[in-house]
Amino acid sequence: MKKAAILLLVLSCGSTSAAESTISSVYKADTGEVSGETVRYYQTLDSPCIFIQILKPGSKGKAFFTKEFCSVFGKSFRDGYASVALDDARFIDDTLDLTLKLTPLELIDDEFFKCSVTVRNEEIVEPVCLKVDASHANVH
Fold first, then answer.
1. Domain count, the chain
2. Range of 38's domain?
3. How many CA atoms lie within 13 A of 129 on its CB side?
4. How far are the Cα atoms of 32, 41, 54, 61, 69 from residue 19, in angstroms, in the given order?
5. Backbone phi and psi for residue 10, each to the nearest 5 degrees, phi listed first
6. pLDDT tens track for 21-31
7. CA separation, residue 5 to residues 12, 23, 29 (Å)
8. What is the DSSP string of 38-91?
9. Which of 31, 140, 48, 50 is nearest to 90 (CA)?
10. Which residues lie below 8 Å from residue 60, measured CB to CB, with a gap of 6+?
């Protein structure tokens, strides 16, 4: 609950209408440390993308770098999949590890990916993803 309250406070920076829109549509988020930087990720109801940000120290939650993670192996989350679910996210050993469950547009089984996000030179490096089978996805 404390993280949710902090998240709402952090996302409320900026113009009122944009902040209200962002806050009301965020459904999954967390903040942690990656390579000495404070990193926040969030996903909203109005976008299948995962937004990953490096927060500016002392700025009350303002991000100085944002990366939109919107595809895996060249296939867009926006039009390449019927649904995109961020099933798990953990800050572990200087990385942000994400587990994705992607439902293809075709009538085939869901696809699972484990992706690692790192920070280098104060920038978020493109996530490195591996396709895994459902038994290795640790889906909740």
1. 1
2. 2-136
3. 19
4. 21, 16, 18, 12, 21
5. -65, -45
6. 566 789 899 99
7. 11, 11, 11
8. EEEEEEETT-SSEEEEEEPTTSTT-EEEEEEE-EETTEETTTSEEEEEEEEEEE
9. 31
10. 10, 13
pLDDT digits (tens, 9 = 90+) for 81-98: 999 999 999 999 899 999
> In Å, what is the CA distance from 68 to each residue of 5, 93, 117, 137?
23, 22, 12, 22
Q: What is the model's pTM? A: 0.79
Task: Answer yes or no: are the C-beta atoms of 77 and 113 closer than 8 Å.
Answer: no
Cβ contact 65:123 at 8 Å: yes
CA atoms of 54 and 47, how far apart (whole Å) = 20
- Average confidence (pLDDT) over 64-87: 95
